[in-house]
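Lab notes, practical 5.
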Amino acid sequence: MTEFISMTAFNIFRRCWGRGIIATLAFLLPLGVVSCGSRPTHLAYLGVPTLNGIAAFRIDNNTGKFTPIVGSPFLAGNSPGPVVVAPSNKFLYAANQTDNTISLFKIDSLVGTLTEVTPRTNTGLSPSAMVLNAAGSFLFVANTISSNISVFSVNSSSGALTQVAGSPFSVPANPVSMAITPSGTYLYVVAPNLPAVFAYSISSSGALMQVPGSFPVGAGANGIAIEPAGKFVHVANSTDNTLSILSINSATGVLTTISGSPFATGTTPVSVTIDPSSTYLYVANEGSNNITAYSVDTNGVPTLVTTQPFSGATQPIFITSDPDGKYVYAISQSTKTVVTFDINTSTSNGGTLGTLTFTQSASVGQFPATSLALTTK
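Output from the prediction step:
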């Protein structure tokens, strides 16, 4: 066995030498994490508040299977909740909701392990949501109890955070969720006690300025998402059991409710995601223990996918799409798992486009936070 590993390591070393990859670590070979060319896996991270740690998994690109990374969970601050991965895939940020701090971790791209870089960065009270702009140059943190947003510039080399001038910026009471346009021009914020979306323009320095007015949605606004094309804002209204969709004016940031909105969902919708092609939209319904699926046309109008809603995630509290659009992942609160669903993107198998098929679930061990961060492929 040792001889086989050594020869395999030598062959990988020889093939990858010209690509700048030194693959001589025989320790990594049995784990399937060394390759040249495209990688067969990517990484996923989520907060585990009761363990004060970050759970880490490797995802198989071909099956969507989650495999725990050795050493997981990795120690963070007290009650880590939201997590985000930098676009470079080099850094992970975790908001510690009891400490009111952010932990910065370096990501080992080969193994997937996390190494915290101290000291931690202070935020407002109870950081509950985080987003990075597409360039990875600014990090936005919604602080629920202090009702403001902390904004940090990001050092591209070290990942270090520096609070921008004027931060934190006041927002309406108790923000819980945010979404940023792909262009990094506008930030949209919701709070469950206010049936509205609040919009902010983002300056070149990262400073926020509120777009005049507010934009009505349903009661209990909770999850919010913007599709990859950056044309529409989607809001899950947990009290109304509806989904609001609003079009974005790219010149002003003003939102306009599309025709037919709001749209019916399951019971207590709390999170929404759109696949990378902007073709399918999925809503996690915590109350009815299922997922509502829609196909979406170019005007942003959703149509319910047949043979749904889809079960497999009990009490889903968060949902997100995989970067390649093959899978949807849902965090199941009551079963303490992350659930993988396959998206049907072909009619050759006789199925309906956009339908979800339960693939597998991965145990977190303790109650997970309402956020899952993925590296790109």
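Observations recorded by the TA: The first strand starts at residue 41 and ends at 48. Residues 1-37 form one domain.
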